[in-house]
Amino acid sequence: MMNIVILAGSNRKEATSTRLSEYIQALMVQKGKQVQLIDLYQTPVPFYSPDEGYHNHPGLANLKKSMLEADAIVLATPEYHSSISGVLKNALDHLSKDHFGGKVVLSVSSSGGAIAVSSLTQLQTIVRNLHGINCPEWISIGGDQRKSFSTPVAETIQPDVEKRVKHVVDAFLQLAGQMSKTKAH
């Protein structure tokens, strides 16, 4: 069974990027995938320092173990000042190509403005540097689209947003499945 990790990178309790991550997780579970959501608000990791080992930090140990075991990855961030969140960047700094190499990665962002292209572009650059495989599709919600994820259950998803998210999740799962089959042979 394909093992997917979603890393929700916000430091806000009710972040729309985290709610979107929860919705993506639910869609994938409905399709029979094993999905673990790591919410960096709930499980923060220490500030990255190359001088520290952090061997006794349970949140960081869980993050590293989960990312190593993942077959595919979803990275979700709010867009702050045309960039990814500091919380997500910090978590990614703790990781390496061992965690991402050869894995398909979907980038997801939520912006207070119209769309969050800057943060998505930065995520894709980071994924390339970590030897991951960027999914050619991505998800960006902004402005009024964020209202679709203002509640934990996502009861008010706008039809066009729902259609787009489902399309991207399907494309991501198809690519991740193809890559898993390639690795197995």
From TrEMBL:
The protein's name is NADPH-dependent FMN reductase
| UniProt KW Oxidoreductase keyword | yes
PANTHER family reported for this sequence: CHROMATE REDUCTASE, NAD(P)H-DEPENDENT FMN REDUCTASE LOT6
List each copy of the NADPH-dependent FMN reductase-like domain by range.
2-142
**Species for this entry:** Paenibacillus aestuarii
The EC number(s) attached to this protein equal 1.-.-.-
Does the record's keyword annotation contain NADP? no
Q: Print the keywords alphabetically.
A: Oxidoreductase
* Molecular function terms, GO-annotated: oxidoreductase activity
Name the family the entry cites: Belongs to the azoreductase type 2 family.
Domain of life of the native organism? Bacteria
